[in-house]
Each structure stands twice: as C-alpha cells, then as structure tokens.
Amino acid sequence: MAYCVQCGVKIADGAPVCPLCNTAVILPPSVVEPKAQPLFAQPLKLGNGSGITKWRKGVFELAFALAVVSIVAVGLSLGLSGLGRYSFIPIFSIAWVTATLGICLYAKPTYVREATIILVATALYLVGLDLFDLALSWSLIAAPALLVLWVVAVAPWTGMKVRGVLALALVSLLLYLLLLNLVVAGALTWFVPVALPSVLVLVVLTSLFSLFFLGRKTPIIPLVDVVMATLVTLFTSISCFDLFLTRYQRGVSELRWSMSLVWGALTALIVLLALTCSRRLRRYFTATPR
Questions:
Q1: Would you kindly state where each structural domain of the chain is located, as residue ranges?
Q2: pLDDT tens-digit profile of 192-219?
C-alpha cells in the first residue's frame, strides 16, 4: 500500500493518480510494485478436456500396440491352422474396440458423449458382424434396440425438456416395435392388434399418474408413491398385453398368465390411495387454524 506524497492519502495498488488530489503516482526505478494477490484462493483454470493429452496418448499407444499384436497372432494362428475363413470376426472385433477406445480418449469425458460413442459404436459393430454373411438379419433387431436404449438412458441428460424426451421415447418405441414386426414376420401382423394398444395403455396410465402427482400441493413426491404408481402402470400394461395377445392368437378376450399381475396392480393401487388419504387426513387434523 502506497501513500500520496502530496496529501498522504492511501493509494490502491496500480492506481496512476491520487484519488483525492490527482497527483501522479511515480515509482522510483529501483522499486518494483508487487502484483495484487486475491483475498481467497482462486480455482485453477482447467482445459476443456478434449484432445489427445499425454496420458491419453500413452493409453492409446499401448492399446494400439496390443491390438496389432493380437491381430497378427490371431491371423497367423487361424491361417496356419487352415481356419483363415473364421478370422474376420476376431480381427474385426479387436480393430473395432481399438478404434472406439481411441475415439473415447479423444472426446471430452462427459456421460452423454461417452455413452453416445459406445452405443453407436456397438450398434455399428453388430451390423458389421451381421454383414459377415453379406446379408442383414438379426442386426436389424439388435442395433435399433441400442438406439432405443440411448433415448431412454442418455437423452434425458442432453438438456432436452421432459416432454420432448417422453415424446421421443414413445416414437422410438413404436418405430422399434414396427421394425421388429416387419423383420420377424415380413409384414404387419401383431403390431396393430397387440403392440399398439399395449403401448397406448402404458401412455394413458403414465399420463394419468403424472397429472395425479402434478395436482398435489406438496412439491416433493414421496418415493413410495412413485414406486406404487410404477407398479400399477407396469402390471396393468403387461396384463393388457396378455389380453390383446390372447385375442390375437385365439380370438377370445381372456387372461392366461397375467392374472397375478392384475391382483398385484390392484394391491399397489389400494396402497397408493390409502397412503394419499392418510396424508391428507393427517394434514387436515394437524393444520394450524387460521
């Protein structure tokens, strides 16, 4: 802290003139003004986390070297034993895992980015394995299932609104079931009479319970209520699926294997209603009169 030679007022570090008399502040050549230090410790500025750092470069070089050795060893062992035609799958698997690891090491380490890379790479890997026979068959079922998994497990953390995530999940589920029906049966058979009404029941029950919870005055929803509502929704949807499937296969509307789920759904619903009524009664009798 310096003082003005004219009026004696304290001068802040780095000030060019006195704040009172405007006298210029001149330091002697032999005096070096120290930099002002912050009162509290400041956080370190980290990089953005992307790019090949020294540690990531070392890991990738090690993985690449092991992959090259593994590919050469597998190729030679299968080729010398007369089984060279079976070397595509292990060599392709090693190369694909190494490439995926390199992409993950280069990308910024966030959950959304890493999960997206792994799921997309796995889906493409399954398609590549299926193309070994120069025809697509089972990968048309497995690869889209991973995309549906991305919508359920990754999309909610991308910053998308809840309504958008739910709509995307519903559309992706319906499209996957439609594709599944076309791949397995070659035509639309059980999608309209079985899958479509089952998904509709699931959507209706989810919407009703969402409105039920949003209509409460308390901002916090108890976990037991969420669990009971989820059980009611799942058990009822599965029971309706059994009903629609039996009607599609036998032409009669009856439950074959899901009767226990119906009783489970009724029990969970009764528990949910009992808990809700007990809380309301407790609030009514314990509320402070105005």
A1: 1-36, 190-282
A2: 999 999 999 999 999 999 888 888 777 7
